Amino acid sequence: MRQLTRVGGLIGLSLLLAACPRPVRPPPPTPTEPSVPTQPQTPTAPDTRGATVYDVSPQSSQLAIYVFRGGKFSKLGHNHVMTSQNLSGRVWVHPDFARSGFELSFPVAQLVIDDAEARRAAGSDFPPEIPQSDKDGTRKNMLKPEVLDGEHYPEVKLRSAKVGGTLEAPQVRAHITIKETSRDVEVPVKIEAAGAKLTASGEFDVLQTEFGMKPFSVALGALEVQDKLHIKFRVVAEKK
To answer: How many helices (H) and strands (E) does the chain have?
Structure first.
């Protein structure tokens, strides 16, 4: 987020976004129900009696957060990919599937900004080569109080709010906490169980403003970050 760009000779300042030759084409949103606001609360310990418990494998699990440019001068910017391989937590599967659940978290300070391979895998709207100085600027702004406030809130936390359906066709609502704000979000997910390993994968959208974050913006919104974040995940867990 720290590049100097002149727009019409009027602005020269650090941008969150570096120049990108193609227009933004965010992925089509996954149909979900609107997120449900909830009040922060101390969760009670989950009842895992009778369930098979799996520990999350950080090395095998992957999380990617896609951030898109916006505004009148969006062509002067580029999109971002933030990735984490530091997921921790556990998943439990009960014979009565509605009693299944999960607890996950990841440290915001260890998010990897614009990894070349992650950008390449994201497609043509994410040119792989980003200067290190821009990555450093993006990290600095990402951890500011207005965004993730990494100093006071070092982790993003997710836990199951409601589980329904079956293992083959699960219906999952996740309780997501970022900073002081929690929301319940419907998360489409596919679950595969093979031997001692469980894999859950899916993707969904959230709005930064719904979690108390202020999307980066300059020049009265002429160049900005879109409110919507697109999240893709693959959680791999192994039987305890």
So the answer is: 2, 16
Cα gap 13→20, rounded to integer Å:
17
Beta strands, E only, the chain: 4-7, 11-14, 36-38, 52-56, 62-70, 80-84, 88-93, 101-107, 112-113, 155-165, 170-178, 181-187, 189-194, 197-207, 217-218, 223-239
What's the pLDDT band for 89 if we cut at 50, 70, 90? very high
Architecture of domain 4-21+51-239: Beta Barrel (2.40)
The predicted pLDDT at position 210 comes to 95
pTM metric for this prediction:
0.78
Given a contact cutoff of 8 angstroms between Cβ atoms, the answer to whether 160 and 100 are in contact is yes
